[in-house]
Amino acid sequence: xxxxxxxxxxxxxxxxxxxxxxxxxxxxxxNGRWAKQQGLPRxxxxxxxxxxxxxxxxxxxxxxxxxxxxxxxxTENWGRPLEEVAFLMTLFERVLRQExxxxxxxxxxxxxxxxxxxxxxxLQEEIDRAVQQTQSxxxxxxxxxxxxxxxxxxxxxxxxxxxxVQRGQLAPEDIDESLFSHHLYTANLxxxxxxxxxxxxxxxxxxxxxxxxxxxxxxxxxxWPDFDPTEFHRALCAYQKRxxxxxxx
Length: 249
Ligand code: IPE
Ligand code: IPE
Ligand code: MG
Known about the structure:
Distance between the termini: 53 Å
Strand order of the largest sheet: 3-4-2-1-5-6
Number of strands: 6
Helix content: 40-55%
Low-confidence stretches: none
Shape: globular
CATH class: Alpha Beta
Bound molecules: 3-methylbut-3-enyl trihydrogen diphosphate, magnesium ion
Number of domains: 1
Oligomer: single chain
Radius of gyration: 19 Å
CATH superfamily: Decaprenyl diphosphate synthase-like
Strand content: 5-15%
């Protein structure tokens, strides 16, 4: 158990609260490359990546960002070496068990999106516990995408809607964007305003394909384990300089 006091930091003076993203999504990429740079096995990068996420969550909560969504494991990541996948599953479970108390105390509301039924049973139990324990908390909405794939999410939504149509509970004309988005895992969330991807890759890698339609994209070459509050501040500065037009002039 960590006994360190919670250090809260306030929003930097050059960030306009009116222009703060309400929902930030992150593709936490570059753990393996970070480890390689240090001459360490890839798993050490994942371990360090957890510290980065903890710090970012706390920073978002302190600075008044309403929601943070982090991509932890994609449906494609099962294709990695067996030992790495096993390490990640164990890591998620252990971190969740260790951090739940502190997150709860800090008012974090945690939820998970993705195909959770295919995760190890012991991890599902930790997930259920964490979700239940924090569901009424007043603080940041923290969403972890685990065994998440954007296409898979859209397909499962189509299936659910098709079933309702087949049963006569819904007419095809009733299907609109709002109804559709209520069948996604993120039904209770606003779309992200800002997507951050670390380690320089210019792609979405199957993350929140529907929800990111009008997000501002910010890509940094910094590897995820090195993405600190200073880097996050830089991303927010870039974001608040953007002119969001949403197709208008
Ligand atoms: C992101 O880091 C973490 C996960 C996908 C779980 P990577 O493991 O993809 O790191 P790189 O891209 O190989 O450096
Ligand atoms: C995206 O990173 C998935 C997560 C961060 C969980 P990847 O490293 O899996 O993406 P690709 O393979 O570079 O597209
Ligand atoms: Mg990667």
